Amino acid sequence: MSMTGNRADYLRLGVNIDHVATIRNARGGRHPDPVRAAHIAAEAGADGITAHLREDRRHITDEDIARLSVEIDRPLNLEMAATDEMLRIALRHKPHAACIVPEKREERTTEGGLDAAGGHNQLKHFVSELSGIGIRVSLFIEAEERQMDAAASLGAQVVEIHTGRYCDLALAGDGPGRERELDRIREAARYAAALGLEVHAGHGLTFETVGGVAAIPEVVELNIGHFLIGEAIFSGLDSAMRRMRAQMDTARARLAGQA
Ligand code: PXP
């Protein structure tokens, strides 16, 4: 990968396979297998595989994480809440990266970013334990400078900017709101990179919304799940991923043309 300062010419795609497990768990059997989906995603060009082991195990299970840790040949990004149980699991499997996310039992998905600023003291222990054994620690946070400052002072190497609001506004057809939110993400990415943080982004991204985020030069990785798995029903995961990759590359190429 060619890197220029904090900018990367190549934008990595992490594929989140949680919702393959959601479908499997609807019947309680073994099909469809999220590890098989991870292999297909890797063959179709995923740069990493992301999975969220939730406290209630509603999709990914402990066994999935154990298998993903040994069976896939792409970096595993484990999304986890800041709990002692998840910390033990992460330390045991030693994934390439751990993304600390907020988690509420009643939510349908990760609804907002982690309050790295407010939870600073509580989070410190998790960041240092994980990074102490060489796991890259990422914090999933909103596009706010104070959250970026907190992530840097906690010693996290990576921040993942929550793109959920931008995608919700796009879905609602609120053009000006969507542009405002994209500006906020853009500014936060610039700010975070200036602090020396590696910048990722994700949540809710689709073929239609990915270009705006992919065109932010400081963003070096996107993590995309629900939409890709949904599209896979119609076109197959390989084809859905290739189309997503093409949208990302087009946005990035346009950016390179502007440089
Ligand atoms: N990044 C993080 C930190 C997440 O928690 C999620 C959802 O699990 C995603 C990215 C992917 O979001 P989506 O499934 O909406 O693409």
Report on this model:
It is a single chain. The protein is of the alpha/beta class. The protein has one domain: Aldolase class I (TIM Barrel). The chain is 49% helix and 17% strand. It has eleven helices and ten strands. The chain has helices spanning 18-27, 34-43, 62-71, 84-93, 120-132, 145-154, 164-171, 175-194, 210-214, 226-235, 237-258; strands at residues 3-4, 7-8, 12-16, 48-52, 76-80, 97-100, 136-141, 158-162, 198-202, 219-224. It has an eight-stranded parallel beta barrel with strand order 3-4-5-6-7-8-9-10, surrounded by seven helices. β1 (3-4) and β2 form a beta hairpin. α10 (226-235) crosses α11 (237-258). The longest helix has 22 residues, at 237-258. It is globular. The model is unreliable at 1-7 (pLDDT under 50). Bound molecules: pyridoxine-5'-phosphate (PXP).
In this structure, how is the largest beta sheet organized? Answer: 8 strands, parallel, barrel
The CA-CA distance between the termini, in Å, is 18 Å
- Measured by DSSP, the beta-strand proportion falls in 15-25%
- Assign a percent range to the helix content: 40-55%
Global mean pLDDT: 94
Our count of helices gives 11
